[in-house]
Design a protein that fits this description.
globular, 42% helix, RNA-binding_domain, four-stranded mixed beta sheet, alpha+beta, Translation Initiation Factor IF3, CRM domain-containing protein, 4 helices
């Protein structure tokens, strides 16, 4: 899903005070990790992921892997932190995506 600039700015402002929920360490990327992230995003819709210094992957590797293997959108990368967005499948959890799609 491609987000417009106004939508990205809204999501970045919303996530300004967020702390990273998931980390990527020396075990790297795996389908199990991506499944856990997808499950968490289905509840939250927006979260940060941290790439630890001992990880064998870079933030661009993580971005490419996530976008290629799922319908998660990487909104922003700052240093070793990625901001991920995915609209929830449950109507009860669609608090953020309703506002984003109105823009």
């Amino acid at each position: 899903m491609e987000l417009r600039g106004k939508q990205k700015r809204y999501l970045r402002a919303l996530a300004n005070g967020y702390r990273p929920v998931f980390s990527i360490g020396k075990n790297g990327l795996s389908p199990v990790w991506l499944q856990e992230v997808t499950g968490a995003l289905n509840k939250r819709e927006l979260m940060k992921v941290n790439v630890l210094q001992n990880a064998d992957v870079t933030t661009s590797d993580v971005k490419n892997y996530v976008e290629k293997n799922s319908n998660i959108t990487v909104v922003q990368t700052i240093g070793r932190v990625l901001l991920l967005f995915m609209p929830s499948e449950d109507d009860e959890n669609q608090n953020i995506s309703k506002d984003v799609f109105k823009m």
